């Protein structure tokens, strides 16, 4: 993936994932398109996201150890994920990547992988 091994290692490991997720959920919790499908208290959601992104970008398999296989599409089926919500989610992530100061080429690689994942999560038309 990278000269240093994984994206997770290249961006600085868990501390950077933590900064990214904190910046992301600060935005999600205030986004009018996203708040209807997220809980009022985002603590547990953010914890699971930290575990998932750690594993997704090549770090320890904490998500699988804690929650089992990711099966992200299945886990997201109960929520109406429209193209508009996908775009809102991606906009929050884009801003969070900037706030977390993730440098190129990792920023683009992360956003590309998350964009593909976000497209896969859609399950409802606008």
Automatic annotation (TrEMBL):
GO terms for molecular function: heme binding; metal ion binding; oxygen binding; oxygen carrier activity. InterPro entries: GlbO/GLB3-like, Globin-like_sf, Globin/Proto, Hemoglobin_trunc. Heme binds at residue 119. SUPFAM superfamilies: Globin-like. The keyword Transport applies. Its cofactor is heme. Gene3D superfamilies: Globins. Keywords: Heme, Iron, Metal-binding, Transport. The keyword Ion transport does not apply. It comes from the Bacteria. Belongs to the truncated hemoglobin family. Group II subfamily. This is Globin. It comes from Lentibacillus cibarius.
